[in-house]
Amino acid sequence: MRPGIGIIGTGMVGQMCHLANFVANPGCRVVAIADLRLDLAAAAAQKFDIARVYRTHRELLADSEVSAVVVVTKRRATGPIVLDALNSGRHVLSEKPMAYTTAQAVSLAEAARRQDLVYSIGYMKRHDAGVARAIAELACLRADQSLGRIVGARGWCFGGSTGRSQDNFVMTGEVRPDGLELWQDGPDWMPGAMRPGYDNFLNVFSHIINLARYVLGSSPTVAESAVETSGTATVTLDFDGVACALQLANGSEGVWREGLSIEFERGTLTIELPPPFAEQEAEVILDQQGQRTQLRRDTSWAFRRQADAFVADIVEQRTPLASGADSVADIALAEAIWKRGSVARFHAIRRQYPGEY
User: Fold this and answer.
1) Torsion angle of alpha carbons 164, 322, 320, 324, nearest 10°?
2) pTM of the entire structure?
3) Would you call 353 exposed, middle or buried from its count of C-beta atoms within 10 A (0-12, 13-18, 19+)?
4) pLDDT of res. 357
């Protein structure tokens, strides 16, 4: 039987990246949507031919035809809504970040485990066909040692134009009403002035951290960290002796630049990621002692592949590529990065102004 999908949140991302892709999947039925903005929900329902519209996620979860939900709401409301969905016995795909603290993230993963549910986090870059190609190439390079051993890695994200299309979603002038339950937006130790930057860090830069974990190993430690209150950061993660240096900064203009480069003794494998909403695959470049080769590139979209994988995970009872249980590590790393980086920053200020601290 085809899963009945409910979409919670019908903003730009909900429509463009999720509704459009699940509606196009013949293996499922999108049976309902929910949004506090009723005019927007009605417009999205008309555009995508969805029969039932609900104002709240609880109304949608009372619909017996909904067997799985996609949660695309404001970030601080994601956790409580996901918890309600899991406790109601629904499979879940939620946008990232899954939570703001490790304890919050663990509570969600545990709820999914207790109910034996598919719980997937929206790290769509794991589903990028170019990334899959890079993973396969990396496995070959590790096996045949043609480039020697891995000696380091480098990741970067300099946010710019997101590559979104302007013609595949509808919007209204409604103001998002209050009334949603919101989880705390950071760990207890974090000052309020740091939390907007932490929120931005989780929203934008958790992608490249998650991808580095997917490519290099699931459980790195934080070797070095320097963070700014804006969310800009310079981080070194230690993957069992392989250092991965990350440069992370927001930009409001220009081309989106994001990628991961794995350095071998005699060459480099580089993944250059497309802008988040661009319907194209990552580019994979292999440098063998100065001879650069771009691996074959096809036409696919990570968000489409993610939607297809979620449906298949439900039907085949598979563990997702970016499961909730695995993604707890991303929240734990973010906490560790910010705690270490903010402490270092505080000590630097105290050394500069010793009489004031």
Assistant:
1) -120
2) 0.94
3) exposed
4) 41
Helix (H) / strand (E) containing 135: helix 129-144
Burial of 320 (0-12, 13-18, 19+ CB in 10 A): buried
Residue 113 CA: distances (Å) to CA of 29, 108, 121, 202, 327:
25, 9, 15, 24, 14
Using the predicted structure, report yes or no on whether residue 207 has a pLDDT greater than 70.
yes
Structure tokens at 138: 């990396």
What is the predicted pLDDT for the residue at 350? 46
Question: Quick one: pLDDT band at residue 290, thresholds 50, 70, 90?
Answer: confident
Angle between the 102-115 and 324-352 helix axes, to the nearest 10 degrees?
A: 170
Question: How big is the CA angle at 334 (ends 124 and 254), to the nearest 5 degrees?
Answer: 55
The answer to whether the beta carbons of residues 183 and 193 sit under 8 Å apart is no
CB 66 within 8 A of CB 6: yes
In this predicted model, what pLDDT tens digit does every residue of 218-250 receive, in sequence order?
999 999 999 998 889 999 999 999 999 999 998
What are the tokens at 297?
A: 């590139």
